[in-house]
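From: lab user (bench 3)
To: helpdesk
Subject: output format question, protein + HDE

Hello, I'm new to running complex predictions and I'm not sure whether the block I got back is the full result or only part of it. Here's what I submitted:
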Amino acid sequence: MASQSRRDAKDEQLDQVRKDPQDTNLTTQQGVKIDHTDDALTAGERGPTLLEDFHTREKITHFDHERIPERVVHARGSGAYGQFQPYSGWLSDYTAARFLTDPQEQTPVFVRFSTVQGSKGSNDTVRDVRGFATKFYTSQGNYDLVGNNMPAFFIQDGIKFPDFVHAVKPEPDTGIPQGASAHDTLWDFVQLQPETMHMMMWLMSDRAIPRSYRMMQGFGVHTFRLVNAEGRGTFVKFHWKPMLGTHSLVWDETQKIAGKNSDYNRQDLWENIANGDYPEWELGVQLVDESREHDFDFDLLDATKIIPEEEVPVQPVGKLTLNRNPDNFFAETEQVAFHTANVVPGIDFTNDPLLQARNFSYLDTQLIRLGGPNFSYLPVNRAISDISTHQRDGFQQNRVHTSKATYHKNSLSGGCPAMADDQDVFRHYQEKVEGAKISKRSESFKDHYSQATLFWNSMAHWEKDHIISAFRFELGKVEHTHIREGVVEHLNHVDHDLAVAVAEGVGVTPPSTAARSNHGKSSPALSQENSVKDTIATRQVAVLVADGVDSGEVEQIKQELTDRGAVPQVLSLRDGSVRASSSGHVQVDARIDTLASVVFDAVVVPGTGESVQNLSADGYSVHFVTEAYKHFKPVAASQEGVAMLQRAGVNGVRHADDSQSVANDHGVITAVSNEGSLPSEFFEEFASTLAGHRVWDRDTSHVPA
Ligand code: HDE
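Helpdesk reply: Thanks, we reran it on our side. This is the complete output you should expect:
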């Protein structure tokens, strides 16, 4: 997919610290060779362990100290290296940042994706915001874009962050729930803090349950500032758009995946990179001239708001490719330290009060998490540009500074490090500010509902259904009735129908009239209905086989899917191989009961009658098909495989027959095979349905799965 080389300046820098035990002997941390590490030194074979056994003590002591505090939020994450490259140089009118404007410059990056609420070991597929943090190792120093997969945020001012996080985290007495927001304290916070409403709409939408880290958008969230070489500033919002489109799981599925494979998103990212299917995103910018700062019906400094793409278009500026897995989870993914204040010349802040608080928080949190002020020299954090400071000493100092003078100005070290005076110098944007000191939210931050309504109005019918179900699920877990009522009350300011639908589901009295009339505006770019739907690359397809299967059909299915970039896996009732209907065998990739339909994007059941009969007699296999159908996935079968669909309860759909060799009824694709060969139209139908990811106009409410 991607042309970028995996080898880059960061990779070469890491070579200096990579340590492979190949051809070495076991030693202590002091480099003394050891020939015994299974038994401690004792006084006699059954006697007490001796204090002088320095190897045992060192081994256990190190082990005792292996853990560091997990991140306060975003504790669970997965990371990968790659590169970013701009398409052209036009953005240099707006920014002096070389990594955004020099199309010849390929900048190494490390990206960490994360969930927010749960601990390090929590499930991947929970309903939550996903972090999307990118460290650009630019030639002008490190730039961190620490974003999320949703473009708004819960609160407007950073001073509320501890309140919000305390509310969403597991409750303090029970420690429940882990990796979930469906509990009283979060919703109590929400009902008393209406600025959360826009973000809660996103959180209740399918954005909160992404199919893959590779298939989600990223957003810088805040309005930042670009500054060009002449010092002129322009407001900017950053967007990441996945080349594979933005796709989500369905709620029932996420809960099942949590049991079947709690590392679902982590494994998906790792395996695709390992297989050479490098995920890519396009970086886009929304630019707003400073003269237009007050032209919007919201405040650009309010992080609970988006700038609708229809008002200010997202202009693509370059591409991010992730193409290298880390070597060591702890050293790299755990120790990576992002900081919103890591900026390079050409990028600056605005007075967004949330951003200002973040600029304090991230450095502070790394000091406790990584144990001192030298974490920027850890391999994953180290810049590839030269680092030369007067900062000295501190825990874990691992540089040997040789100069005598550790102060500026000095004559003893020749005045070095000297002040630079070139285009790589960071100079703060000269924004004029004045005002009285005041603890008060700006009036321009007071509209908490219009964009929640905009989001609601922009959803496709199935997205609206999912949002209603999500609110019902979450509030259904809330024990206090007054909290349920409070949330419904706010929803009635967003959209009356939404409030009524939620109220009816959670047993509170539906509001009789709207608290606010719906403005009727929408932003089509917000709907996943309008996402990229032209590829089946990397989609996982289960091909169910059993003894007596038509090997020609299986080969053809595998070939056609692989040619289009999908990843077929042959599953059967046992490992190894199954007997083919003619002669020979069909190789099996995995046993059906070691996996589940929920970890696949689609399922195909090839002929023949004997194979289908064998599968139909196995409850797990039948359930596999039923469940895939329930979750709106493309389900395909050759003519004889139709019997399996019927056994799985996929009834009432039109099938291929002698009059019509291929049928596609609500994503159930069937074909009449001609001497072991399926018509090409079958694969075209299957691929276009799979590219759409799910078949939302299928009614599966009656399907028991
Ligand atoms: Fe963070 N956030 N955050 N946050 N955040 C952290 O930093 C914080 C906010 C985001 O993969 C912490 O190193 C405050 C918005 C990501 O390592 C901490 C406020 C957005 C990550 C912190 C916010 C984010 C973090 C915890 C409100 C989206 C994971 C550990 C003022 C634009 C980065 C750490 C990674 C992590 C503080 C709000 C995204 C405590 C105080 C808004 C992706 O410093």
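A quick orientation on your result: The pocket of HDE is lined by residues 71-74, 77, 112, 114, 131, 133, 146-148, 153, 158, 161, 221, 303, 336, 338, 354, 357-358, 361-362, 365-366 (CB under 6 Å). Let us know if anything else is unclear.
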